[in-house]
Amino acid sequence: MACSSTEYIEARIERTEEMIEALENAIEQLSIQGIHSYDLDTGQNRSRVTRQDLPRLNQMLDTLDSRLSRLCKQLANLNGGLSIQVAPSW
What's the pTM? Predict the structure, then answer.
């Protein structure tokens, strides 16, 4: 499948959204009083994260949000310039 095909970009968007959701769940759980660790499953790997990992998790979330925005722009360009707005759920 070509990297510039609509199907490829849509699949990347879906995968990125899944990873964002997994990170948001981890960040939310670690923010709850009494929760000290969380098993993060991104679909690619599983790892145990702790509250000390929150800065890294937030940085990863920012990176994924940027990727999602870029992919949506690529998809819009492939679809004739239609615009798709993406905003964090928080």
Answer: 0.80
Mapped onto helix, strand or coil, the DSSP state of residue 23 is helix
Counting Cα atoms < 13 Å in the Cβ hemisphere of 11 gives 8
Q: pLDDT tens digits for 30-56?
A: 998 888 999 999 888 899 999 999 999
Give the CA distances from residue 27 to residues 38, 57, 73, 90, in Å, rounded to whole numbers and listed in that order: 9, 7, 27, 11
> What tokens were used for 82?
């239609």
C-alpha span between 31 and 20 (Å, rounded): 16
Q: Which residues pair with 47 in a beta bridge?
A: 40
Phi, psi of 47 (to 5 degrees): -150, 150
